[in-house]
Amino acid sequence: MVKMLFCALLLAGASISAAAAPVPKEQLLVPPANARHFTITSKAGKHGDNWVWTLPDGRIASRMSMSLRGWITEVDEVATLGSDGRPVAMEVRGYTDSGDASETFKVGPDGIATWKTAVDSGSAPFGTKRYSSYGGPWFDGVDQEGAFLAAGERGIELLPGGKGRMRIVRSVEITGPKGPETVRLGFVEGFGLSPRPYWLTADNKFFGSAGQISILPAGYEANAERLKAIGEEETAKLVRDISRRFLAKENSAPVLFDHVKLFDSVGGRYLADRAVLVANGKVAAVGAAGSLKAPAGARIIDGRGKTLLPGLWDSHRHVGGDDFELIQNLATGITNYRSPGSLIEDAQSIFKRRAAGDLLAPDGKVSVIIDRKDPLAAQGALTVSSEAEAIAAVRKVKAAGMWGVKFYTSMNPAWIAPAAAEAHKLGLHVHGHVPAGMRPLDAVRAGYDEITHINFIMMQAMPQAVVDKANTAARLEGPAQYGKDVDLDSPAMKAFYAELSKRGTIIDPTLTVWEPLMTSDGTAIAPEYAPYAPVAPPAVARAWKIAGYPLFGNVTRDDFRKSFAKMVGVVGRLHKAGVRVVAGTDGYGLELVRELELYQQAGMTNVEALQTATIVPARMVGMDKAVGSVAPGKTADLILVNGDAEKDLRVLRQVDKVVLDGVLMDAQALREAAGFSGPPVGAN
Q1: Per DSSP, what are the bridge partners of residue 642?
Q2: CB-CB contact of 451 with 443 (8 Å)
Q3: Quick check: 549 and 476 in contact, CB under 8 A?
Q4: How far apart are CA 667 and CA 583, in angstroms?
């Protein structure tokens, strides 16, 4: 059970590695023919398998094999159960897409539990607790659901820390190889920032999980979309009640912020001692401190020592699947987003429920991923097998009311230009990963308006062998290995920057995706997450500690770090050349402030970095007349932070108040609703 609860966390970017070589695939356990078989699938197709069986000595064995867009997982596990059904020993072997997955856990005769992974080790009295594993197969065959249900609200204490709970919300009849049967939907708490939907059999054993990526028993895959929809429906009910509380009518009363330092994103400056009046969902007036009169019933907020800014944008925030993450985004000051890839039905649901007041969420625009039908296709993509199908997919995206199309790495390069031309004819934005065999300039000349991810920008200078395999792990390994040797100021690179600038190309670097993978060594939590770790559930904080992408060949960690420094340097040179940069995280959204810090390291000023998360993305999506700056008549999407952002952008993590469509909300209340116990620690 516990392994599956880490699925979403691991997919969000957590990874592990170790100095010792992992056990190779050939030496891992081979499941017998009668093993319980689960498949790992998405709309794009099948990605892997998970088997479970019992060994002759009574121990429970499991094996998982997966290829997700070229990232490979090959792991097994053997668990020994105690007399009460709790695992008292466990060993994981193999490797994930991020290296050695080795993990051990054992309870000694003295009742002391010990554990060791690639990033941590420890010991503690076992008592009545249960070990929450770091990795291993998504389902390891250990059915612990009944114990969590029996514990009720009091929950079960976990090792290394935290408490897990589970409750059942409804039963559903599905059809499988054996005909109709009943499964039960439960919500699990304590393993993530928010409650997670989880499917059980009628007798409270593990059945599966259904989402953008699903793991279900073989033969039941046809139920994935329905189970996903039901899980999201029940999650929506939980979020609806929370949303209505924050969106209560009284929170829409006028509010006057007085004596604030105001960030002028259009003018590119900070204005001292200003006043801003919000009324009827709009910015009603902006003036000198003390010059605006608050209407009757207005709330007056003294902003001395604080900074008022337009709400922040995350331009690489995949929305859909977890409504609680949208509340978390607001808690961290993100009032707008651009999703570079969401399921059409998920996006439409978000738009509809937000408009009805049933979903507390930032406002934004959504693109849909289009990829070639292939084992390496992106999960959640519209998959196509020809130029005609690619064009038809573009039309489907437009008909669904989406903003853009995002082409992916397995696309046939020959299809890009005609599909992009159709997208532009329909008024859609075109961006994406660079397909294998193409360099970024090829993609831009074929019609890309924007390149996502800095590693694909680095592809301009990579060996052809890397470019040809950019739909595999080579899309990171190539830039990691060769990036350090790229002359960023060579005539070829300068010409590259100049052409991107001339064409008006936009860059979405997502440096915070690559910083932990390339620079971490397992000794500390990455700077993206360190401020949030003390106030997050222990299981989440543990998953944030990674050992970095595994080394290969003769490449060293220092080489990786030098290559990452070149990535940061490229962002600075692109900006200097006049290329527009938008700040995006491709993560939780928590990483946004660190992204801006890295832009400053690249050479941007404080103001320039902050513009990449305010007015620049608003202009990119065509919403700058309504949001992205603080001016009379604009939608009141604002954040008030404790501290002086002009002196240090890190204070952006210390959000005090959030105004969304004129509704005033307390940031700490939002943080608690999103699963955090308090404000980020050491954020400024």
Answers
A1: 306
A2: yes
A3: yes
A4: 22
3-state class (DSSP) for residue 100: strand
SS3 204: coil
- For residue range 389-401, list pLDDT tens digits in order: 999 999 999 999 9
CB 191 within 8 A of CB 537: yes
Q: Is 341 helix (H, G, I), strand (E, B) or coil?
A: coil
For 592-644, write each residue's pLDDT tens digit: 999 999 999 999 999 999 999 999 999 999 999 999 999 999 999 999 999 99
DSSP 8-state secondary structure symbol assigned to residue 373: S
Token readout for 495 is 């010409």
Alpha-carbon span 162 to 7, nearest angstrom: 18
- Torsions phi, psi of 332, nearest 5? -100, 15
In single-letter form, the type of residue at position 648 comes to D
Q: Where are the beta strands (DSSP E) in 558-647?
A: 580-581, 638-642
The candidate with the shortest Cα–Cα distance to 596, out of 527, 540, 546, is 527
CA distance 528 to 593: 8
Tokens 């300039």 belong to 441
Using CA atoms, how far residue 623 sits from 248, 563, 611, in Å, is 26, 36, 14
What angle is formed at CA 99 by the lines to CA 97 and CA 105, rounded to 5 degrees? 115
The H helix count followed by the E strand count for the chain is: 20, 33
Determine phi and psi for 476, rounding to 5 degrees: -105, -45
Q: Which two tokens stand for residue 91?
A: 């060993």
Phi, psi of 301 (to 5 degrees): -115, 120
Task: Report pLDDT digits (tens) over 513-557.
Answer: 999 999 998 888 999 999 999 999 999 999 898 878 888 899 999
For the chain, what is the radius of gyration of the CA atoms?
A: 25
CB atoms within 10 A of CB 519: 18
Would you say the C-alpha torsion 555, 558, 561, 567 has a positive or negative sign? Answer: negative
What residue type is assigned to position 630 of the chain? Answer: V
The rounded Cα 554 to chain-centroid distance in angstroms is: 31
Average pLDDT over residues 147-153: 94
Is residue 494 exposed (0-12), middle (13-18) or buried (19+ Cβ within 10 Å)?
middle
* Distance between CA atoms of residues 568 and 403, nearest Å: 29
Sheet holding 206-208, edge to edge: 130-131, 156-159, 163-176, 179-189, 196-201, 206-208
Task: Give the integer Cα–Cα distance in Å for 252 and 221.
Answer: 45
> Is the full-model pTM beyond 0.85?
yes
Coarse DSSP helix, strand, coil percentages of the chain, rounded to the nearest 5 percent = 30, 30, 40
pLDDT at position 3 is 54
The answer to whether the beta carbons of residues 187 and 166 sit under 8 Å apart is yes
Half-sphere exposure of residue 40: CA atoms within 13 angstroms, side-chain side: 22
Three-state SS annotation for 404-467: EEEECCCCCHHHHHHHHHHHHHCCCEEEECCCCCCCHHHHHHHCCCEEECHHHHHHHHCCHHHH
pLDDT band at 98 (very low <50, low <70, confident <90, very high): low
Distance (Å, whole) CA 312 – CA 652: 9
Count how many Cα atoms sit within 13 Å of the Cα of residue 529 in the half-sphere of its side chain.
24
The crossing angle, in degrees rounded to 10, of helices 387-399 and 413-425 is 30
* 13 has a pLDDT exceeding 70: no
